[in-house]
Amino acid sequence: MDRQPRAVSLISGGLDSMLATKAVLEQGVHVEGINFFTGFCVEGHTHAIRKQERDKPKRNNSLWVAEQLGIKLHIIDIVEDYKEVVLNPKHGYGANLNPCLDCKIFMVKKAKEWLIQHDFDFIITGEVIGQRPMSQRAFTMPIVAAESGADDLLLRPLSAQNLPASRAEREGWVKREQLFGFSGRSRKPQIALANQWGIQEYAQPAGGCCFLTDANYSDKLRDLWAHRPSRQYELDDIMLLKIGRHLRPRPHFKMILSREEGETNFLEGYKNEFMWIKTASCSGPLVLLDGDNLTEDDIRLAAELAARYSKGKDAAEVVCKVACPREDYTELKVKPFSEPIPAAWLL
Fold first, then answer.
1. What is the spatial distance between Cα 32 and Cα 72, in angstroms, rounded to a whole number?
2. How far is residue 263's CA from residue 167's CA, in Å, rounded to a whole number?
3. Rounded to whole angstroms, how far apart are CA atoms 249 and 346?
4. What does the alpha-carbon distance between residue 205 and residue 33 come to, in Å, rounded to a whole number?
């Protein structure tokens, strides 16, 4: 090759992709990062919104990793393209609604398209054999390479010594003996390597970086699909599933109740899109009503429930503001809902 080799690295914001990228940088390769925004990402969303989570760094970990490594990061919105992966995964779901194998195939395929457009030479991922039960097994590694079309352009530096040599190794762009043979779910080898390289701070793994791996979130998404004419979603839908307390007191409408100040501020941005309720005579949640053809009885029930979750839950009467999108509010006086909340209402 008559120029410096160039690689694009999938940067999730976690330790594995950070180490995999550094392993290739150490060998003199020019690396740029790529991060795909699906809308289901965990990091940087809910704890950035909530006031109570002040102890967590409010940052985009992918950008932070790129900064630590000194590389350029390309963030690409794939929300629309990604819908087919979520709705109809060829390889099925994991324990919840996580299409992990299809997701990895899709992202590597997108990375290859980017590689071709920008005249780069190979792709880096932080995959480790045996670390993820669905997408990172010895059996599925070749599936990702083949079905994405990346084939031997795909280099997994952390497990490279346990895999057939990639093109980057065969061409001498990287030295195989300076890559690694990690396998299994233990994080000890990665942590030891981070310490060796002087990396003291990194995002801690917490069951994956995608809300689709979370049982509670997946239940809310199933409920959303069950009450829509078609099994679809928009970005606002999946963002709102991350926030607040969700109740479905009746089949044709759902309530989203803020739980603290940060969530209230976030939901304020949706008052022009949803009917809303806010307690006026005492502090309480901002409530969005997601549904059509709500009756006066529906609205009264929702106001009673809003009062139940307010500081006035023991009062004889609570005054609530009620408004349709982009309209002035009216006031409604209600007695807070006093019966036990049926378990079927809680999402």
1. 5
2. 48
3. 8
4. 20
